Each structure stands twice: as C-alpha cells, then as structure tokens.
Amino acid sequence: MNQNIKNFFSESRYRWWLMASVIIIYLIIVAGAVVRMTGSGMGCPDWPKCFGYLIPPTEQSQIEFSPETPYKEGMVIIVDEELRVAKEDFFTGKTFNEENWEPYTKHDYSVFNVYHTWTEYINRLIGALGGLVVFIMFIFSLRYIKKRPKLTILSFVSVISMGVQAVIGKIVVDTNLSPALITFHMIAALLIVGLLIYLLHEVKPIDYRYKSNKTMVNAAAGLIVLTLIQVVMGTQVRQYIDEQVDLFGYPLSSAWLENGPLVFLIHRSYSILLVVLHGWFIYKAVHTFHHPKRSYTILAVLFVITILSGVFMNYLDFPFGSQAVHLVIASLILGMQFYLWMRLRVALK
C-alpha cells in the first residue's frame, strides 16, 4: 500500500465515517419512531419497492387499473379493496383482465394514504443511506486488517447487521406490522448502535480526565442493565398501545391506557428508581472523580426529557410527537451509558 493510499485510508477518516454511522443509525431510529407515531408502517404494502414502484405513487389513480397502459412485472394495484400484482410486463386492454394479475398473498392490507406512503418511503431511503454509510465505514476499516483485525471484522459485522435489519424490515411489512417483530427490529438497531459506539471508542484517544474504580465501573454496567429492563417494559407497553389503537383508533388516545396492564404501572414507577440511581452516578462522577461535565450533563438532560415525555403521554393523552421523543431519547441514553462505561473501564486499567 503506497503512501497516498495510506493517507487516504487514514484513521481520522475511519473515525469520521464511524461517527457518521452512529448518527445515521439514530436517524433511522428517529424515522422509525415517526413512522410508528403516524401509523405509516404499511404506507408501502410491499418491499423493497412501494406498490411496485421505485418512486412511490402520489395519487390514488396511480394504483387503480388504467386501460391501455403499460405495466411492469411486480407493479401493484388495488382492485375491490384487494392488492393485485402484475405477473409480467404487459400492455392492458380496455377492460381489466384477471389473468394478467395475481393476488398479493403476504397480507391483506390494501389502503392507500399518500402521506403514510411517503413517510414510510422516506424511512426506507434513510435506511438505505444508513447501509451505504456503514459500508463506506467498513471500507475505511480495511486499513486495520493486519495490525488490528478485530476492528475490520467488527466493521464488517456492522455491514452484515444492516443487511439483517433490512430483512427484518421486510418481514415486518409482510406480517402487517407484527408488534413483536417491531420490538425486535428496534432492539436490533440498538445493538448495531452499541457495536458502532464500541468501535468509535476503540479508535478514539484515551481521555485521561476519566478516573474510576470498580464501584463506578460496576455502577455504569448496572445502569445499562436497569435501563435495558426499562426499555423492554416500554416495548411491552407500546405493544399494548398498538392493540388499543386497533380497537379505538388514533383519535381516542385518552382511552389507550385506561385500565392499563401491570407492566405499565411498573414501567412508570420504575423510572423513579432510575432517576435516583443516575443522579447518584452523575454526582459521583463529576464531584468525586472530577470527570468532564459535558457527557454527564448530556446524560442528565436526556433523562429529564424522557421522563417529561413519559409524563406528557400519561397525563396529556399522548400529545403529537411524545411517543417518538420518548423512544429516541431512551435509545440515546443507552448509547451514552455504554460509551461512559467503556471510558470508565479503560480508566480503571
């Protein structure tokens, strides 16, 4: 490898693309939260295309039968409130011919809402962009393939993980938004974030301002576990809310948590424990070990926001955006906790 190539595949460029990868994954989480918040998950009933188009339709007429029109294989129309898929490339006559079409059998959702369609489509575009950014990050990781092969291997694992996420996204659509699969989709995204943050930590210089002991390291790890438990309970509450949406619809959000399940009550009260423990942890880090305040201030602010968004959902009948904010901030908290835990472990050594 000549010097110009070495300079191009520099460590700073790898770090830059790692940071870009972390940011884009969080943008994917934001986009997914917006999709779920707006009920747009089935805006595109097929995958990876949308109604069989690379660029989705903008009008209902585009997915209705049109006489004397060319259709491509895989294009989707709605006939008698059912999806029909073109069997092959053909040119229609003046009337609808059933022989040219086959029913879409993966699910029976056949509603077109232009806003939902484009919300879901943008979500997919961001996901595709995320895959590209992570792949470029992997390319720059090849500089370590001889001296630090673990970085290159884990960077490649990140690429594979993005592909798996895409497959999970397809299955989510094919199952008409199975709540369990949506939860798994979210947890997988958090695992990818964790892997990327680990890589970012591995290539960043050691910050000697971080001092530590076993108590702080164990406390940081414990907070991650406790927060994960809270997130899992939160996903159970969200699955319950999804069921309530099916029963009552979005306009009746005040009825979603009436006589809510026990997990909701535990989830709500458990947050008090997390606030107390994080308060102690931040105080010890800043005042006892004199860590840089910036990271801990961010963690504290994120916690305040997620608590407030939870309060708003519970007592103000789910104001617009509160669910998305609650989910995204919780994922940011986990990322920050993981980063601080790694910094504390290095300081302990």
UniProtKB/TrEMBL annotation:
Annotated compartments: Membrane
Q: In which pathway does it act?
A: Porphyrin-containing compound metabolism
**A Gene Ontology biological process term:** heme A biosynthetic process
Alphabetically list the UniProt keywords.
Cell membrane, Disulfide bond, Heme biosynthesis, Iron, Membrane, Metal-binding, Oxidoreductase, Transmembrane, Transmembrane helix
Q: How does it sit in the membrane?
A: Multi-pass membrane protein
Coarse class of the primary localization is: membrane
Q: Please give the PANTHER family that the UniProt record associates with this protein.
A: HEME A SYNTHASE
Q: Spell out the protein name for this chain.
A: Cytochrome oxidase assembly protein
Q: What gene name is given for the protein in this entry? A: ctaA
